[in-house]
Amino acid sequence: MSWALIADSSCNLRGYMPSAPDTIYRFAPLKVNVGGQEYVDDEALDVAELNRRVAAEESATSSACPSVGEWADRFRSADNVIAITISANLSGSYEAAIMARDIVLEENASRNIFIVNSRAAGGKLELLIVALDRYLTEHPDATFNEVTAYICNVEQSSTVLFLLSSYENLAKAGRMPKVAGMLANKLNIRMLGTASSEGTIKVLGPARSQKKAFEKIIGSMREDGFQGGDVFIDHVFNEKAAEDLAARIAAEWPTAKATILPCGGLCSYYAETDGLIIGYGW
């Protein structure tokens, strides 16, 4: 039986090759609309150019989820499909995936398709995809129900943190309180946030320096019960800060394994320049 691990492009894995046998990884692209032009968040996207266009655009910009057809195309890739979407409270991606699942199952009821609402974006989705791949590698005879039970448990015991220097796009799109975004931009301070249990962005507080911000991140990870393991750090043209954070995490937890990835279009659009998105579990 073949497996397909599918995510939308809020997962910043590009060109990922699963280790598990008979398993593929694919992603469904979100889109960013700027000045009447649509940018597809795929491997060909020039993220730097997108960011320049967004910064220069005076009119409203927006994002759009993958279409039902795009999800359906990917769901036809294997006998067993696990799909992971950006938080259902941040995008219509989850609902589009649900509709696509129903269409594909009407075509062929023998397929197995399970959709996970990550209640997050960025690093948490990467954590879930890699955890799935590892589980399938270590348990090649696992049933579909065993795999879905496993990934639901991982989703419940993992989260994401956002360390942002600019909040304009998030505030405009209603993804965070406008007052908090305006205040943070005006004072030129970093803001730490996390995904709430409902999947929206919850502001944890400001940090006036990178050192203070990293202390807050380590504190949040400690409170969550992180004891080492995989950490995914996504960055928007801020690799040095991602490397510094990875070193700080390793100093606190020597068994931690940090993977640093550049943000694709969707995550760059919302995290904006210098932003970091950190996914981890416990």
From TrEMBL:
GO molecular function per UniProt: lipid binding
UniProt-recorded name of the protein: EDD domain protein
Keywords linked to the UniProt accession: Lipid-binding
Domain of life according to the entry: Bacteria
Keyword tRNA-binding in record: no
